[in-house]
Structures are given as C-alpha cells and as structure tokens.
Design brief:
Structural class: mainly beta
Shape: globular
Order of helices and strands: EEEEEEEEEEEEEEEEEEEEEEEEEE
Strand order of the largest sheet: 1-23-20-25-15-14-13
Radius of gyration: 18 Å
Number of strands: 26
Mean pLDDT: 97
Distance between the termini: 37 Å
Largest sheet: 7 strands, antiparallel
Length: 271
C-alpha cells in the first residue's frame, strides 16, 4: 500500500459522527497540513479545542451550524452533492479557540488545519466569496473554487481550494511542484487532495514524483480517497466518462502559492 494514498475510514467517534479521514503529522510525512473529514447525522455535533492550529471548516455537502462560542453561523452549506458544481460555505477559526459543528441535515465536513500562532478573527467564507476560475485549454480544462487563496489575508498559513475536472481532461497539469522555499521563484507548500468522482464507481490517476525520482508513485485513486503530497509534481488524469472533484489543502512556512512547472512538460503551455 502506498504511503501517499489514503482510503476512507468508517470510525464512529461519537453518536452520529463518523471519521472518514484523519491525516496528521503523527501518521503522515506532513508537518504543515493536517486534515479530517467527518460525516454527521442530523443533530449530531463535533467539537474541538484547536491549540496552536487554525482550521478552515468546509461544508462539503449538507447544511451545518458552526460556532466558536462567540460567533455563530447557522444553516450554512449550499449543496447535496459536490457535482452540483456550485461553491459552498466555509468558516475560518484561528488558533487557541474552540469550535463546534452541528449538522442541520446529513453533512460531510472537511476540517483543514495548519500551524498558527497569531490569532485572527473567526470568519464566514460564504459561497459568494469564492472566486471561480476556469483554467486551461484543450484537454487541460478545470474549474476552480478559491475558498482561501493567498490573496485573502484571513488565515495565517492555510490555503484551500476546490477543483472540478471534466471527463477526459488532465488537472494539476502540466505537472507542477511547490517544494522549495525559494521565493519569489517557488514556495514550499505541503498539500493534500481529497477526491470524489461522478459517477462514484469512477477513478482517476495521480502521479507524485520528484526530479531525481527518489519519489515516484502513480496511484489509482477511487471515490473518497485522499492523496498526500509532501513534495514533488502531482498531476491528475481523469478517464473518459467521469468527472473529478478534489479539495486541496496547502500550507507551509510562507503563505504564498508560487509553483514551478516540470521543464520537460512546460512546452505544453506554449502549444
């Protein structure tokens, strides 16, 4: 089994709350990015004391209420399936706070963490705040929902984005990386990919590799799987007949997304 590929868990951690994924610095090679995915039945609650971490709480599907005990955002979330392809609501909560998520309906919620020392205001990132981009040409087209881009100063470390890639297209392509702390040319950012496919029996291929090939893995990624990208290039290929969704979380020592294309494949951009 690949150390980079994670399949869903089905661990009930309390009544009505199922842990689907749990990526931490203890069980992965990541230092800056932690990630949980939880499923909640209507009325169920999940709470956590953050310590020296910040979190972006993404209402992936369903409706939830989120509070940090001082401010409360009720009945947020915009979709029953990610493949409605509309932006959703999220909440940013800074370090040294406690948050609670309560399910208004059946909900899947992503908890995206990174280290944080400077406390910032809790903030609702509404669906209408998401910048929507269409990137690429030819068979390299995808749609992006920017939840927490580096142009938004609401977080200390976190970058969060959703990407939709249509049938027969490539994404995160040409292959690019961001594993060198070498600004302004490149920033060091770890990354996680949470994947879904439509129809759900589909799969995508994701390769993670470095220039010297000391890391070189190509994975068959199924619905609900995660891929961890500690370093290296990380393109995604989507087979004919299926649509791909992934939720990206990035963090590193500097909150800037500056990537470097694989020079062997950069010519594609000039074609």
């Amino acid at each position: 089994m690949s150390k980079l590929l994670r399949k869903p868990e089905t661990t009930e951690i309390k009544d009505g709350v199922t842990l689907v994924h749990d990526v931490t610095s203890e069980n992965s090679s990541l230092e800056y990015v932690n990630f949980k995915m939880i499923d909640l039945h209507p009325g169920a609650t999940y709470s956590e004391e953050l310590g020296k971490q910040e979190v972006c709480i993404v209402a992936v599907t369903g409706k939830i209420t989120v509070t940090d005990q001082e401010v409360t955002f009720e009945n947020i979330g915009t979709r029953e399936s990610v493949f409605e392809k509309v932006p959703t609501d999220s909440v940013y909560v800074s370090n040294d706070r406690t948050f609670e998520v309560k399910a208004v309906s059946q909900a899947r919620v992503a908890l995206c963490y990174s280290p944080s020392e400077k406390q910032l205001p809790t903030k609702l990132i509404s669906a209408s705040d998401n910048g929507v981009e269409h990137r690429g040409t030819g068979n390299n087209k995808r749609m992006v929902h920017n939840i927490l881009p580096d142009s938004d100063p609401s977080a200390n470390s976190l970058l969060v984005v959703e990407v939709f890639t249509e049938s027969g297209n490539w994404s995160s392509y040409p292959p690019h990386k961001h594993d060198q702390d070498n600004l302004p040319e490149e920033s060091f950012l770890e990354e996680t990919y949470y994947h879904e496919m439509n129809p759900p029996q589909g799969f995508v291929f994701q390769r993670v590799y470095t220039d010297d090939r000391s890391l070189d893995e190509t994975m068959t990624v199924e619905n609900g799987n995660m891929v961890i990208v500690p370093v290296g290039y990380h393109p995604v290929g989507v087979p004919e007949g299926y649509t791909s969704y992934y939720l990206n979380v990035m963090a590193g020592p500097t909150r800037v997304w500056k990537f470097y294309n694989d020079p062997d494949h950069e010519w594609i951009l000039k074609g």
